[in-house]
From TrEMBL:
Protein known as: Frag1/DRAM/Sfk1
GO cellular component labels: endomembrane system; plasma membrane
Chief location bin: membrane
Membrane topology, as annotated: Multi-pass membrane protein
Residue intervals passing through the bilayer: 12-34, 62-80, 100-122, 134-156, 168-189, 195-218
Location(s), subcellular: Endomembrane system
Length: 236
């Protein structure tokens, strides 16, 4: 039997793995483009390559694998968080509204994850229209999931004002998600108006997504040393 104080390690590795793979994939793709003399790919329009331009070339296997692992990790992080909250190992949902928003957050992560996998498979060189459609699905799914998660955490923290970790969790998520969503709006505009600026924003948003994934490590780790049912709705 795994000691209670170490049981959290059965799942906190999920967001860590997703963050590591996502950041590593992006860094490898960026360095490849820079170190090979900043070539202009077939699908590239401006002087700065988009992630999708690099991912549509010979690094497509890395792009598909990295996006797939990240998408699954993102979805599982929210799914595990929902299970731990339901099983009394994280602060519980005291009202139906929190449970509804928590479920919607998981659904949003699933939709966003599917969009991420599909945009990597249907690359911008061979399927430009599908690629942009799935990019929109990915961004909307993640944005909605973030909004639902932050709202749920905010309501939970109001019921447990003395638990500072809850406040830290939703404030950190709110700051990161707000910045990424604002940058995403700017990206949507520059994608058609200023191609090179759009490429810079895409790389910035993508690297920033790493930090959002890491916030779930902080969330899941709060179950450290907590027995099943210890934080159940009935007890609290």
């Amino acid at each position: 039997m795994v000691p209670v104080r170490r049981r959290h390690w059965a799942y906190v590795w999920i967001p860590l793995l997703g963050s590591f793979i996502w950041f590593g994939m992006l860094l490898a793709m960026l360095l490849t483009w820079v170190c090979t003399g900043r070539p202009k790919y077939v699908s590239q329009e401006g002087s700065i390559a988009y992630i999708s331009d690099v991912g549509a070339d010979f690094l497509k296997p890395l792009f598909v694998a990295g996006c797939s692992v990240t998408a699954i990790s993102f979805f599982l992080s929210l799914l595990v968080e929902r299970y731990l909250r339901h099983s009394g190992r994280l602060m519980p949902n005291m009202r139906m509204r929190e449970r509804v928003f928590g479920t919607l957050a998981v659904l949003g992560s699933f939709i966003g994850g599917c969009g991420l996998i599909l945009l990597s498979v249907f690359d911008t060189k061979r399927f430009p229209s599908l690629h942009r459609a799935f990019l929109l699905v990915f961004m909307l799914g993640v944005a909605l999931s973030a909004i639902f998660t932050i709202t749920e955490y905010r309501w939970i923290s109001k019921d447990f004002l003395d638990v500072k970790r809850l406040k830290i969790a939703y404030i950190a998520k709110a700051i990161i998600a707000t910045l990424l969503i604002l940058l995403a709006f700017a990206f949507g505009v520059t994608l058609y108006k200023a191609i090179n600026v759009g490429a810079i924003l895409e790389w910035t948003i993508s690297f920033g997504f790493t930090f959002y994934l890491l916030t779930f490590f902080y969330d899941l780790r709060q179950s450290k040393g907590i027995q099943r049912g210890e934080l159940s709705r009935e007890r609290m």
